[in-house]
C-alpha cells in the first residue's frame, strides 16, 4: 500500500527561535516565535469530509485520502515522521483593547510542504491544548468545525482570498461548551479541521514582540515573512519594511472590498485574526448579510457596540493596520511613510469601492454620476429589508428596453429580494421606480449588450452563499450523523456563480424561523 508522502520544507519553527520543551499547558513565554507542542490523540477519529482539490494542491493523491495514514496525521493521532508540530506566539488587540499574549490556543501547525512551486502550512484546529490556550481546553466542537470547513472553501470559490480546508474529522470525544455564554454549558461532539494556507502569520505576531521590546526577534520575524511570502520585495534596510507594510495595506484593503462584494461579515476583526497575507482567516462567528444592513454583526459579543458590523469593516481594517504599523515602527523609526500609506488607503478606498459596485451593477466603467446612483441605491436598500444576494443576482435580468416598460414589470425583476410585500407599495414603490429608471438610463449609456452584461454581472454577484441558516441545518443533521446536507451544500458552494437549477431551492431568502434562531442569525465565539 502506498503511504502518505509529502514534500516537507523548512518553516517558521525551523527558522525562528522556539520553545523546544513540549508543555501542553498555558504559560507566558518570551523571546520566542513559537512553542513545540503535540496534538492530543482523539478517542475515535472519523473522517467526515475532505477536499480533493486542496489535497491536490499539497501533492496528495485522492486515493490516499481514504488511507488510514491520512486519518492518523490529520486527526492528530500521529505526528508525521521528521516533523515537529508547534503553536505560534502572538498577541493582539481584541475589540480595540490590547489583550497581551494570545497565541495559537486551539491551533497546532503540523508542518510546511511545497508542491508545484507553492508552499503551504498545514494546521489542525481543535487538536488540544497548547501553551497559549489560556483558560480554554484547545479543542473545537463539530458545529464550529463544520462552519469553518465549509466557509473557507466557499470563500475560495467565491474568489475571496482565504485560508483553505483539507479535512473535517470527528474526534469521538465530547467537549464542554457554553454556546451563548449564559451559564448553561453542555457537552458537544468534538471535531478537528485541517486548515491550509501559505502562512498563518497575523498582525499580532509582530505586535507581541514590539510590546515586549524584543526588537531583534521582531526583525527576524519580519525578514522571514518577507523572504518567504513577499519574495518580490528585494529592497534593503528601512525601505524593505516600508514596502512590506505598503503591500500588506493594499492586500488588506482589497480583502475588505471582496468581503463587501459578496456580503460577508467576519465578526471578530481583532488584530490577532488579521492575516499578514490579506487572507480571510479564523472563521468564528461570521455570517453573510441577508438584508443589506450596514449595522449588522453576526457576533453576540459585539451586539452592544457593533464594532465589527458590516459597514465598519473597512474602517476597522485601517485601525488594525495602524496597530501593525506601531509594531513595525522600530524597524523604520520614521512615522511619515506609515502616515502616507494610511492616507493612500483612505484616498483609494472610495474609488475602489465605486468600481466594485459598478461591476455589481453591470457597468463597463465608472462615471462621475455613478457615485450618486450607488449612494441612492444603498439608501433604498437600507430603508427596506431586502436580500442582498438575490437583489444583485436578479438585477442582471434587466434589459435596456425595459426603460419603456410598465412600472410593475420593472418591479417584478427585483421583487423576490424583498422580505415584505408592503415595502413595494406607495412612496417606497415610487422611490424604487425612480431608481430603476435612472439605472436603466445608465445601462443605455454603455456599449455592452444585455447578454454580455448579464454574463459579467453573474460573474461577480454569486447566486449561492453559505447563509447562516443553511450552515445551521447542516450542523443539526450532522449531530444526528446525517451528512447528506453537508455533502450537498459543499458541492453547491463549489460553483457559487453557476445556476445549478437542480439546487434552486437554496436560492431563497432567509426563512422566518431563522430570523432569531441561535446559530442561524447571530453566534458567539464559542467553539
Number of helices: 17
Main sheet properties: 6 strands, antiparallel
Taking pLDDT < 50 over at least 5 consecutive residues as the criterion, the unreliable ranges are: none
Please state roughly what percent of the residues sit in beta strands, choosing from under 5%, 5-15%, 15-25%, 25-35%, 35-45% or over 45%. 5-15%
Q: Please tell me how large the radius of gyration is.
A: 24 Å
Mean pLDDT: 94
Overall geometric form: globular
Termini separation comes to: 37 Å
Structural class: alpha+beta
How many beta-strand segments? Answer: 13
Q: Largest beta sheet: what is the strand line-up? A: 1-8-9-11-10-4
Order of helices and strands: EHEEEHHHEEEEEHEEHHHEEHHHHHHHHH
Q: Name the helicity range.
A: 40-55%
Overview of the structural elements:
With 527 residues, this protein is α+β, with helices and mostly antiparallel strands. It is built from 17 helices and 13 strands. The protein has helices spanning 12-15, 52-58, 62-65, 68-74, 142-158, 203-211, 215-229, 237-262, 313-332, 336-360, 370-383, 388-395, 407-414, 426-443, 450-457, 468-478, 484-493; strands at 8-9, 18-19, 34-36, 46-50, 86-88, 91-94, 97-101, 107-115, 118-125, 164-177, 186-197, 264-265, 287-288. The strands form four sheets. It has a six-stranded antiparallel β-sheet with strand order 1-8-9-11-10-4. A hairpin with a 2-residue loop joins strand 8 (107-115) and strand 9 (118-125). Helix 5 (142-158) runs parallel beside helix 17 (484-493), helix 6 (203-211) runs antiparallel to helix 7 and helix 16 packs antiparallel against helix 17 (484-493). It is globular. The two termini are 37 Å apart. The model has no long low-confidence stretch (mean pLDDT 94).
Amino acid at each position: 500500500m502506498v503511504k502518505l508522502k509529502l514534500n516537507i520544507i523548512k518553516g517558521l519553527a525551523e527558522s525562528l527561535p522556539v520553545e523546544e520543551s513540549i508543555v501542553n499547558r498555558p504559560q507566558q513565554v518570551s523571546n520566542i516565535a513559537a512553542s513545540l507542542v503535540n496534538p492530543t490523540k482523539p478517542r475515535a477519529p472519523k473522517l467526515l469530509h475532505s477536499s480533493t482539490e486542496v489535497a491536490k494542491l499539497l501533492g496528495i493523491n485522492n486515493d490516499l485520502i481514504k488511507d488510514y495514514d491520512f486519518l492518523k496525521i490529520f486527526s492528530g493521532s500521529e505526528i508525521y515522521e521528521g516533523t515537529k508540530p508547534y503553536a505560534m506566539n502572538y498577541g493582539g488587540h481584541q475589540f480595540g483593547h490590547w489583550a497581551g499574549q494570545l497565541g495559537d490556543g486551539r491551533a497546532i501547525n503540523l508542518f510546511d510542504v511545497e508542491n508545484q512551486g507553492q508552499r503551504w502550512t498545514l494546521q489542525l484546529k481543535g487538536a488540544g491544548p497548547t501553551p497559549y490556550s489560556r483558560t480554554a481546553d484547545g479543542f473545537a466542537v463539530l458545529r464550529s468545525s463544520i462552519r469553518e470547513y465549509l466557509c473557507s472553501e466557499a470563500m475560495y470559490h467565491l474568489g475571496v482570498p482565504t485560508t483553505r480546508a483539507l479535512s473535517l474529522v470527528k474526534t469521538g470525544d465530547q467537549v464542554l461548551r457554553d454556546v451563548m455564554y449564559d451559564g448553561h454549558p453542555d457537552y458537544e461532539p468534538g471535531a478537528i479541521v485541517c486548515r491550509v494556507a501559505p502562512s498563518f502569520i497575523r498582525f499580532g505576531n509582530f505586535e507581541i514582540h514590539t510590546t515586549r521590546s524584543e526588537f531583534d526577534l521582531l526583525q527576524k520575524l519580519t525578514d522571514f515573512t518577507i523572504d518567504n511570502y513577499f519574495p518580490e520585495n528585494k529592497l534593503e534596510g528601512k525601505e524593505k519594511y516600508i514596502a512590506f507594510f505598503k503591500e500588506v495595506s493594499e492586500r488588506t484593503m482589497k480583502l475588505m472590498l471582496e468581503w463587501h462584494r459578496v456580503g460577508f461579515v467576519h465578526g471578530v476583526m481583532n488584530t490577532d485574526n488579521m492575516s499578514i497575507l490579506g487572507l480571510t482567516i479564523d472563521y468564528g462567528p461570521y455570517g453573510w448579510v441577508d438584508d443589506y444592513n450596514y449595522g449588522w454583526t453576526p457576533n453576540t459579543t459585539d451586539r452592544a457596540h457593533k464594532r465589527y458590523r458590516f459597514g465598519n469593516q473597512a474602517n476597522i481594517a485601517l485601525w488594525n493596520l495602524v496597530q501593525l504599523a506601531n509594531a513595525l515602527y522600530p524597524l523604520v523609526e520614521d512615522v511619515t511613510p506609515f502616515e502616507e500609506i494610511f492616507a493612500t488607503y483612505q484616498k483609494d478606498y472610495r474609488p475602489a469601492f465605486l468600481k466594485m459596485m459598478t461591476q455589481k451593477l453591470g457597468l463597463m466603467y465608472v462615471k462621475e454620476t455613478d457615485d450618486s446612483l450607488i449612494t441612492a441605491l444603498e439608501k433604498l436598500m437600507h430603508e427596506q429589508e431586502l436580500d442582498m444576494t438575490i437583489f444583485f443576482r436578479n438585477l442582471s435580468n434587466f434589459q435596456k428596453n425595459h426603460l419603456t416598460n410598465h412600472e410593475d414589470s420593472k418591479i417584478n425583476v427585483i421583487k423576490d429580494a424583498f422580505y415584505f410585500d408592503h415595502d413595494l407599495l406607495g412612496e417606497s414603490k415610487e422611490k424604487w421606480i425612480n431608481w430603476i429608471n435612472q439605472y436603466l438610463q445608465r445601462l443605455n449609456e454603455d456599449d455592452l449588450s444585455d447578454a454580455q452584461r448579464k454574463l459579467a454581472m453573474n460573474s461577480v454577484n454569486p447566486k449561492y452563499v453559505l447563509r447562516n441558516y443553511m450552515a445551521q441545518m447542516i450542523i443539526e443533521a450532522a449531530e444526528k450523523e446525517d451528512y447528506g446536507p453537508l455533502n450537498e451544500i459543499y458541492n453547491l458552494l463549489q460553483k457559487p456563480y453557476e445556476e445549478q437549477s437542480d439546487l434552486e431551492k437554496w436560492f431563497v431568502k432567509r426563512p422566518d424561523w431563522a430570523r432569531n434562531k441561535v446559530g442561524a442569525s447571530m453566534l458567539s465565539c464559542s467553539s
